[in-house]
Amino acid sequence: MAIGTERVQRGIQSIEVGGQVLLALVHRGGPMALKDLAREAGMAPAKAHPYLVSFARIGLIEQDRVTGFYFLGPLALQLGLISLQQANPVQVATPLIAELAQATGHTIALAVWGTRGATIVRLEEERAHEKSSRAVRGPAPSGGMPPPAAVPSWAAFERQLAEVRAQGLSRSVGEVLPGVNAMAAPVFDHSGAIVLGITAIGPAALFETRWDGALANALRGCAQQVSQRLGASMPRRA
Questions:
Q1: How far apart are CA 218 and CA 185, in angstroms?
Q2: How much is the pTM?
């Protein structure tokens, strides 16, 4: 058993180091000179260059013959397209929301947008105890929908929408079910479209609704991880 675990954890350091060069190209999002690429990858140009030569030989990168700048090559494109074809948002998100449920102690739901609005397709509960005091077993099982809330005025909706865009989250403080709070983060795909909502649900007495709270940050982080795996654009590094 120990041997098997060791094999899983062991990696090839040179590949991981070289991978920093590819990550630098991805984060920049455009062609880069050798010196800039090396700096972003945290290594000297003389160290980065052999990796670039090898990556170019297999088609992961290419070099512009005029400017000398490096950019992602045809193999990188093929890998990306195949990855996008294989990516299933619910499948990608499921193991991450299980971890989120354990970390937060709240029920976590995955919702997709259907013909009748948001529909829960996956539900994860904290399993540290057989009956968690934070778990919410309300009227919205997997595939179901909560009862409709009152429709806000257009002005109120615009204010709420602006707040959601500013915070990267939406929240409900007892608005749908009395005594139950919820907070949700969007998941984006490679085209920038929202494909999922990750929602935390819990009793109001135990549920933190601050925009900068631990739960809010955990939700954002989980949604960003899923979005990244679905090919969504990541923020450039400073």
A1: 10
A2: 0.61
- Given a contact cutoff of 8 angstroms between Cβ atoms, the answer to whether 135 and 107 are in contact is yes
Task: Tell me the DSSP string of 130-145.
Answer: SS-SS----S--TT--
Long-range contacts of 134-138 (CB under 8 A, 24+ apart): 134/105, 134/106, 134/107, 134/202, 134/203, 134/206, 134/207, 135/106, 135/107, 136/106, 136/107, 136/180, 136/201, 136/202, 136/203, 137/107, 138/177, 138/180, 138/201
Q: Which tokens belong to 24?
A: 């630098």
Tokens 């193991």 belong to 95
For residue 116, give the DSSP letter: T
Tokens of 77: 């494109």
User: Which tokens in the block code for residue 52?
Assistant: 């670039």
Residue 138's closest CA among 110, 118, 111, 109?
A: 109
Q: Give me Rg for the CA atoms of the chain.
A: 22
Give the pair of three-digit tokens for residue 133: 């005091």
Per-residue tens of pLDDT for the chain, all 238 residues: 343 444 556 788 888 988 999 999 888 888 999 999 999 999 999 999 999 999 999 999 999 999 999 999 999 888 877 776 777 888 899 999 999 999 999 999 999 876 667 888 899 987 654 444 455 554 444 444 455 556 778 888 899 899 999 999 999 998 878 899 999 999 998 888 899 999 999 999 999 999 999 999 999 999 999 998 888 875 544 3
